[in-house]
Design brief:
It is built from 28 helices and 48 strands. By secondary structure, the chain is of the alpha+beta class. An eight-stranded mixed sheet has the order 5-4-7-2-1-11-14-13, with helices on one face. The protein has a seven-stranded mixed sheet with strand order 30-29-31-33-32-34-35. The radius of gyration is 40 Å and the shape is elongated.
């Protein structure tokens, strides 16, 4: 009894000292005494709240969902005028509220975006977790004292420099003594084992569940490290104790004198090196200096910068972290979620975190670069000294930084706090000229959108070294000239990501964050194995993903959405990337850029079993910065981010290539070098006869060397392969071949350009393979895209296509822009038609070589399909990995990657084709002469305009092409019979025959 009395007297003494010190510290703040107890079985709290208000008070008291059992004002009963759980008190008063509340933790639903952010008050067998709304809350700062009767099997923690515990018959009475003002008070309790160490006069506690108590020593040791680190950087640790408390809920919070970390979190090995330090730093920023968050939350940005970012910078990974911040922002912050930093109040999803934590951290990084490291650190120490245990706003921070640096920071804070978005720049008109006795770089920096004022770092590489410059940017467009030594090779702007700016496409990696943050997100559900992904589909449907079957997906869906494709057998994967292979065991998630819209991504999820999917589903979305993940049994085994360009890189030097004509290799030597290659691509410009002669030379040489090969020709379309086969086997005549293959209708170039090649193949029984797709399909796709094709037409096109070659796409875009009326056409459709053209030819080549693996193939196609290997060669290699060689005629720009061999043939005129000297038109199923050349073959024979052609010799004329077909192989001076039908005035039609000399 005596010992208990001593303890009680000591507690009364401490409380008295606390109240005296509090009163001396600030007479104008309320004092709030709380006494609470719990009924665990009923999830119930019972409490008495005594609030002492000073003179001239005008405060709101929030009761929320609490039930007020009785109320007194200055010891007299009264009825609070409650409106929406709030009442108001004016003047000096003592308010006593007896209340109770039930907390089952059932109000807020957690999503993949707010785990660790939204956690509700809870009272139950697992423990007690009370953050907001568990007592009548005063509007504003106050001094708190808390007594809590806690079940004996629990240990409790709240804000306190000292905690006193008295054992009682029905539990334990906790007294939490804290002599500083607070914005609010928290209480947590659980079945903890307590560990304690004293370090530099600070009591460090670990409250862990029995199964995790082994972690306490590690957490305490890391806590010592952070206390020393931030004590040196800022000011000594401001409290007498610090506790690491494990929570049964998935939280990550810091309150004055303790942090509350979820059980799943504390078990992660990296938390002591990341999140723990972040929460301990909040003891200074957030718990020693409070945030006036109604004017903007600056806490999370500054704390992130001095913890998460600082730890990476100490490892030499600062630039990598800064780039990740920008990637996250561009991925998660869609226009409808974008707010200014001044409007950020707290994290509620990935977008708000990217703004408040990420952009906020970058603000402080840019500020430190602007005013210098010493002024930056001096400002932080001055702010702490000036504002301890008070609320601070962005304006208070601005004042502290201006004071330490003697700089006017109005513009800096205005543009970064009040404006949405990021800096957006591009570099235009880069060039090098010789001025003022040295090489001089010239370029223009163009800001897109409202201009910012900032410093832009640029690294210039020359053949004599590197040079760093910092450019002051203020206007929408600014021109610069920089003198350098040596030959400039390259410029890189902001290569270390010191600016919060929008990344160029070349810098921006495809990451999971882009899938999560997109406004339009589609899950593509497979026809088979869909049961594996049932839970993942349900989870993402709740998060706002749209669900579509594979068959429902159109190209318009792909272009306008980011996709999550389930399984690796999807026809959409084949359509975009060609073949796609599994990456490894377990659950895999791969993210690629969307070839049809580079601002979108395509993610591919695959797994060996439903169990693997279910164990990984909720975890993968917290790995937003990665392009590839692999899980086994729910554990992450691999993760990586695709490498992308660092900074805005401008290439200033392209080596000039030259050749030595006297030492140039001759065609017959080239043929010897390439004769053993499985696939030989020989490009052409279709109307250049000398290039077709080269093709024939190569074909003849290979035949003479005894090679077994086929000739693949772009000029013929797949449905007409039989016409080629029949002619090569001498089953039909040349005229029948040209008619049956519809050559003049579908290719239209002078047949004499190819006739020698085909005749040689026929004479030597060399197979000719029709490579091309039916022109009607290509034309249809060029006008309406792949979505315009019918189901029957889709059967004619390849299932798998690779649309990822951006260099090829850009070259096609250049060509597209050069065509007349290109602005009225759709480039996406044009691009799809070109890919379809290339892919069909690639598949035709592959199919033949699969059937006849002992054969080589010579491919004859337009130079655009062959140069840089982009059109056909790389696609065939994707399908069969067979070696190949490319041979093309010289084009306007010689590039080292243009082809394996570039030829320079002398022009050879094409032997003239014989003509009748008429212009023909098909009318009502007949061929009419709509115009006739004076002194031409037909005119000389007596044929007239408007005559209808019936036949030439025994060749029936049904189409315009029939005339062209007849003339193939005819010689000058040869006599022919032409039958026509002529209309005579009043005398009707008459069939007439004329003799003509070619």
């Amino acid at each position: 009894m005596f010992n208990k009395m001593k303890i009680l007297i000591f507690i009364v003494f401490l409380v008295s000292v606390f109240l005296i010190r509090s009163a001396e510290a600030n007479e104008n703040l309320p004092h709030h005494n709380l006494s609470v107890s719990f009924d665990i079985q009923r999830n119930l709290i019972k409490g008495v709240s005594t609030i002492s208000l000073p003179e001239n008070s005008d405060v709101k008291i929030y009761t929320g969902s609490l039930k007020i059992l009785s109320a007194k004002q200055n010891a007299q009963p009264f009825e609070p005028d409650l409106k929406d759980g709030i009442f108001r008190i004016k003047g000096k008063a003592v308010i006593e509220l007896v209340y109770e509340g039930v907390f089952k933790g059932e109000y807020e639903k957690q999503t993949i975006e707010n785990i660790g952010v939204v956690s509700d008050n809870f009272i139950g067998e697992k423990g007690i977790y009370l953050t907001e709304g568990w007592y009548p809350l005063i509007d504003g700062m106050a001094y708190y004292s808390l007594k809590a009767n806690i079940p004996k099997w629990f240990a409790a923690v709240s804000e306190a420099d000292e905690i006193q515990v008295i054992d009682q018959q029905d539990g334990k009475e906790y007294s939490f003594l804290f002599s500083h003002p607070l914005q609010q008070i928290h209480l947590t309790a659980g079945r903890y084992i307590e560990k304690k160490e004293t370090f530099h006069g600070i009591d460090i506690y670990g409250y862990f569940f029995p199964e995790d108590i082994a972690l306490a020593e590690t957490y305490i040791e890391y806590t010592k490290k952070y206390i020393v680190m931030y004590g040196e950087l800022l000011t000594p640790y401001p409290f007498k104790r610090f506790s690491i408390v494990e929570n049964f809920l998935p939280t990550g919070y810091s309150m004055p004198t303790f942090t509350l970390l979820g059980q799943d979190v504390v078990r992660l090995p990296f938390i002591v090196e990341t999140s723990l330090g972040h929460e301990i730093l909040h003891q200074w920023f957030g718990n020693f200096i409070y945030c006036k968050c109604e004017e903007g939350n600056w806490l999370e940005g500054l704390t992130t910068y001095l913890s998460d970012y600082l730890y990476e910078e100490q490892k030499g990974k600062g630039a990598e972290y800064r780039k990740k911040v920008i990637v996250d922002y561009q991925s998660y912050v869609s226009p409808d979620k974008e707010i200014s930093l001044k409007k950020f109040s707290g994290r509620k999803d990935f977008a708000s975190k990217a703004i408040g934590y990420g952009k906020g951290a970058m603000l402080f990084h840019m500020l430190k670069n602007l005013i210098g490291n010493d002024s930056f650190n001096k400002a932080l120490k001055g702010l702490i000294k000036e504002k301890e245990f008070q609320e601070a706003s962005w304006d208070d921070l601005k004042t502290a930084f201006e004071k330490s640096s003697s700089a006017n920071l109005d513009l800096f804070f205005d543009q970064w706090l009040t404006r949405k978005g990021l800096i957006s720049i591009k570099i235009e008109e880069p060039g090098v000229v010789f001025l003022h006795d040295s090489q001089t770089l010239s370029f223009e920096v163009v800001q897109q959108g409202e201009p910012y004022t900032f410093n832009l770092p640029v690294k210039i590489i020359t053949n004599k070294g590197e040079k760093m410059e910092v450019l002051n940017i203020e206007k929408e467009r600014e021109k610069f000239e920089i003198q350098v030594e040596g030959t400039p090779l390259e410029m890189t702007f902001d290569g270390d990501y010191n600016l919060m700016r929008r990344l160029s496409e070349a810098e921006n990696p495809p990451v999971i964050a882009k899938l999560i943050g997109d406004e339009k997100r589609l899950i593509v559900v497979p026809e088979k194995d869909r049961e594996k992904y049932v839970e993942l589909i349900a989870l993402l449907k709740e998060e706002g993903f749209t669900i579509k079957e594979e068959k429902e997906i159109k190209d318009e869906d792909i272009k306008t959405s980011s996709l999550l494709i389930l399984g690796t057998e999807s026809p959409i994967l084949k359509r975009l990337f060609g073949e796609f292979k599994e990456s490894g065991a377990g659950f895999n998630l791969i993210v690629k850029k969307n070839p049809l819209n580079l601002s979108k991504v395509v993610a591919i999820a695959s797994a060996g079993s439903k169990e693997e999917v279910d164990l990984a589903s909720k975890k993968v979305f917290h790995y937003g910065k990665y392009s590839y993940l692999r899980f086994e049994k729910g554990q992450n085994m691999e993760k990586k981010t695709d490498e992308t360009q660092q900074g805005i890189r401008i290439n200033l030097y392209k080596p000039v290539l030259g050749i030595q004509p006297r030492d140039a290799i001759k065609l017959d030597e080239i043929i010897q070098k390439i004769s053993g290659t499985p696939i030989i691509y020989v490009g052409e410009r279709h109307t250049n006869y000398e290039e077709h002669k080269i093709q024939l030379d190569i074909i003849m040489s290979l035949y003479e060397n005894g090679k077994k090969f086929a000739v693949g020709m772009e000029m013929f379309q797949r449905p007409f392969q039989k016409a080629l086969d029949d002619y090569i086997s001498d089953t039909i005549s040349e005229k029948e071949f040209l008619k049956n293959s519809e050559y003049f209708k579908r290719w239209q170039f002078d047949y004499n350009l190819y006739r020698e090649i085909i005749e040689f193949a026929k004479a030597k029984n060399i197979p000719i393979i029709a490579l091309n797709l039916r022109s009607e399909i290509i034309e249809k796709v060029s006008k309406g895209g792949l979505d315009s094709l019918t189901e029957e037409e889709r059967k004619e096109i390849p299932e798998d296509m690779d649309m990822t070659d951006e260099d090829y796409k850009n070259r096609l875009k250049e060509i597209f822009g050069q065509h007349e009326r290109s602005e009225s056409k759709n480039f996406d459709y044009f691009y799809q038609s070109q890919i379809l053209w290339d892919e069909t030819m690639a598949h035709s080549i592959n199919e033949f070589l699969k059937e006849r693996p002992d054969h080589q193939m010579i491919v004859l196609a337009g130079v655009g399909h062959i140069m840089h290997s982009s059109g056909i060669p790389k696609r065939v290699f994707r399908l069969n990995a067979r070696d190949y060689v490319t041979v093309i005629p010289n084009v306007e720009e010689l590039d080292k990657d243009l082809a394996h061999f570039v030829l320079f043939p002398e022009p050879v005129p094409l032997p003239p084709s014989l003509k009748l000297g008429v212009i023909l038109k098909e009318v009502d199923g007949k061929v009419m002469i709509v115009d006739i050349q004076p002194d031409g073959v037909a005119w000389t024979a007596g044929i007239k305009k408007d005559d209808m052609l019936i036949s030439i010799n025994d060749w029936k004329i049904e189409t315009v092409e029939d005339v062209k077909i007849f003339l193939i192989g005819k010689k000058k001076g040869e006599t022919i019979k032409i039958k026509v039908m002529r209309k005579r005035f009043l005398l009707g039609e008459k069939e007439m025959e004329f003799t003509a000399t070619l």
